[in-house]
Amino acid sequence: MADCSRCRAKPSYYTRRYSGESLCADCFRVTLVEKVRRTITKHGMIAHGDRVGVAVSGGKDSLSLLRVLQELSGGKYELIALTVDEGVQGYRDEAIEHARSLCEDLGVEQVVVSYSGLFGFSLDQALDWKDERGLSSCSICGVFRRRAIDEAAAKARVGVLATAHNLDDYVQTFMMNLLHGDVDRLGWLDLSTSGEAFPVRRVKPFTEVYEEEIALYAYLSKIPFQSVSCPYMHEGLRSEVRDYLNEMEAKHPGMKHVLLNSALKVSSKLSKGDAAKKTLACAKCGKPSSQEVCGVCRMTEIVWQHAKYTGS
Ligand code: SF4
Ligand code: ZN
User: Fold this and answer.
1) Closest residue by CA, ligand 1 atom 6
2) What is the DSSP string of 246-298?
3) What is the per-residue pLDDT across 235-249, written as a single tens digit (0 to 9) for each?
């Protein structure tokens, strides 16, 4: 086997097709962490002395993010893991346990919030009515999840919120917004302004890392993670977009990266134009909202109405 193109000492283990580098396992890990460091610096994501909340679900991406940020912090900023328990029987407990155990190993404080505690119902209960509305489980869940993470961030008194969205997530979301004709949302993807109107700034340090490389990092770092997907996951168009992008990347290595750069430029331009996100205060709960009444209040109302109707 050819030598590692970086240290020239150990056998190569992984070839980055988009750059042509062949790396040993150690150099692969070092270069991934370095890439995240550069992303953080380039986009001014985290500053000295910040109190950083890391959204840790217990999947490979979020556990790897916590580990990488811990390695990069070197005591310069503080990390607190924020975990949301949606309340999915027989699925969520394992992931929460993985998150708890990594936090313990790394000596990171963990704050857990639950849908039941925050909204008065679990995801299992909330989804009981969904078939009648023609909304996907994830679009309903996502509304509550974003609020739950905001609440966890407030509880932990963090100033920055890091999520584990990776390069693949970013370009898939960009393509999905294009295919849905949702031009306003393209502007929301801008890294430097996203969530500006919200109390906690959101950052995505894995934006320039391929999903496949995060999986490899988790494996090499012996991070145990939950591999079973949420039973409600229904991806529809997203999985078709993912397959298409994977096919393009296989034929033209580096294409996802080129798409990411185009997407960043487009979203940056749009976020400064008329399409920029307008934030109001929800008339019911006072939380930031893009409409008069926020999604959480609208959905909560429907869940309660349904519970009253069915007596559940
Ligand atoms: Fe919620 Fe969908 Fe994630 Fe399940 S997969 S936890 S339904 S967003
Ligand atoms: Zn509201």
Assistant:
1) 230
2) HHHHHHSTTHHHHHHHHHHHHHHHHHHSTTSPP-EE-TTT--EESSSS-HHHH
3) 778 889 999 999 999
